[in-house]
Amino acid sequence: FFLGILQPFSDMLKLLFKEFFFLNYSNFILYMLVPFFSLLIIMFMFILLPFDNMNLVNDFSMVLLICCLMLNVYYVILMSWASNSKYTYLSSIRVVVQMISYEVSLFINLLCLFFLMEGMMVELFIKNQFYMWLLFLFFFMFLLFFFIFLSELNRIPFDFLEGESELVSGFNLEYGSMMFSLIFIFEYLMIILVSILMVVMFMKGELSSFMFYLKVITMIGLF
Is the pLDDT of residue 161 over 80? Predict the structure, then answer.
């Protein structure tokens, strides 16, 4: 019955403590710092969420969250450039093209929601959905945000960033050991954060309630 239970933990230890190879033609300092920089961004974004009715930046918290979300593109570009590999370079070009295509529609839809909420605070999205979720009023906008965030997270069918059949592994090709695991930790934390944003914007996401976490788990399953 217990056979195989410890296998994931042993795989994790193996990944974290594997030998790390240094690239001869890479920008070494940037190559090492970018994965940690990405984790700092995601930690800052979680701080902006008003857990227990506390928020560092009240007036523009939603704008700051979305702006930090957009930095995802720059970390991929920096990672690809620092690796100095043709496959990672092609991956960064794909990201830039994809970014131009969806971020314009993201900001236009966000402006519509800000006008509707009469502010740019995360708390306003929670308070103004006391009687009815925005999901029922603006279902097509919810679908649009869902596909935009799918593109932002590079999930199927918008996984042009990795493209295993064309780019081997894409932007993270030259990373291994602990650095590789940091990249994937960042990606899954981004999925959790975007799921929280979707719940807050469209499903009355009271961050201290039990139902909030059930909604977030449902959104994570969709992503």
Answer: no
